Amino acid sequence: MILSPDYSNAQYIFPFLCFYPLMMTVSETTNLGIVFLKRSSLNILVSLISLAVSVGLNFWLVPIYGATGAAVATGSAYIAFFLARTYFSMRIWKGFSVKRHLVTTAVLFAAASLNMIIRDTWLISILNTITLILILLIYVPLVQMSRKFVKTKHQKNRIQKGIHA
Q1: Which domain holds residue 74?
Q2: Per-residue model confidence (pLDDT) at position 132
Q3: 119 is a domain residue
Q4: CB 95: neighbour CB atoms within 10 A?
Q5: Using an 8 Å Cβ cutoff, are 75 and 17 in contact?
Q6: By CB neighbour count within 10 A (0-12 exposed, 13-18 middle, 19+ buried), where does 115 fall?
Q7: Residue percentage of the chain with pLDDT more than 90
């Protein structure tokens, strides 16, 4: 352990705090409709929705659960941020499918919740390994499609340069 044993309970709420960088990063790709169509005013609405979720959940959960409630409120607010950004972007611009993002977010939310509830380190490790495998399985078709695209592109470049296999 790097920190004092006084901080050992932080490991159980940490997964919810990871939603901040994750949802911010993913929403940068699902936000393209707002960016391309220069509808930045929608970002204000997205921020207000996230703020409402954050304030509401903090008022509800922090008095009851303390730091755990604050972590859940923060993670949930960033999930709301991602969902709102994605929703408004898809309403004004035909983007791409976000089903995998939504399923992955739901899987991660469930895993983060279970990480808070289960206090057995071995069981959490097994759960997190299963979660990782599940997420990898969700994205296997995308990885395969990417490999085919790269292979096809590479073959076309070789043909254009007169290099035959």
Answers
A1: 8-140
A2: 95
A3: yes
A4: 15
A5: yes
A6: buried
A7: 53
